[in-house]
Predict the structure.
Amino acid sequence: MNKVWIGTNWKMTKTIAEGIFYTEELKQLANELNPTIELFIIPSYTALVDIKKETVDSRIKLGAQNMHWEDAGAYTGEISPKMLAEIGLDLVELGHSERRQYYNENDEDINKKVLAALKYDMKPLVCIGENIEQKNNEISQEILAAQLKVCLKGLTEDQVKHVLIAYEPVWAIGENGIPADSEYVGEIHTFLRETLVDMFPKNGHEIPLLYGGSVNLENFLPYIDQKDVNGLFVGRTAWNMETFTVLLHELEKHLNN
Ligand code: PEP
C-alpha cells in the first residue's frame, strides 16, 4: 500500500464561509503535494454542498461526519445515505467516539451504516478505539477486535476494499487527550492488520489503517513511521491551516527521503 491518507474531521467548528476559505487554501497546498498523499476533509453537513463545488476539480476527497442507515423515513434531524450520495461525497465517517459517547451509537448501528454507505458508493471511514478503563484492564485488543468484527459484519471481500479504518483511542482524543506512544500505536495497528487479514484473507491487507488522537507537529512522524499506519486522522492540528501546512510540508519531505 503506497498511499498515505491524511484527513480531518472539522466536528462542529466551522461555518460555511470559514469552511470555504479553508478549502481554498488547502486546494492550493494540495497542488504541491506528492500524489501518494490522499487528502480528505469532513465538514459539517451545512457546508457540504458549497465545499463540494470547491473540491470538485481538486484531489481533495470530501466526507460527512455521520449519517442514518435508511434511505428515507420519519427520522427527524437525520440525514440519509441517499442524500449524501446526491452531493457526490467520497466518504462518510462512522462511529466517532463522540457519536458513541453522546448519541449512544453502537457497533450494530455502525454496521448498518457501513452497509448503507457501500450501497451508495461512499467509502465508510470506521472509527474504533478503546477507552481508558479498557486500556488499564489490558483488554484493548479484545475490544478492538470485537468492534471490527461487528462493524464489518456481513461485508464481502469486494466490499471491504472500499473501507477505511481509523484507530482512535478514546483517551487520546481531544483537549483532554493524552497522546499515545508511537510504539503502542504501532503494536495496535499490527494487531488490527492481523485481525483484518483473519476476517478478510483476500483483501484485509489492503484496508487503510489511519491513526488519530492528539496528532500534532511533534508526534506525527513517529506515528506515520509505524509499519501498519497508513495515514493520519487529524483533529485540532489540521483545523488551523498554518499548522496543517507545516504538517503536510514536513510529511512531504519525509516521504521524499
Ligand atoms: C478526533 O477527535 O477524532 C481527533 C483526532 O481529534 P484531535 O486530533 O484533536 O485529538
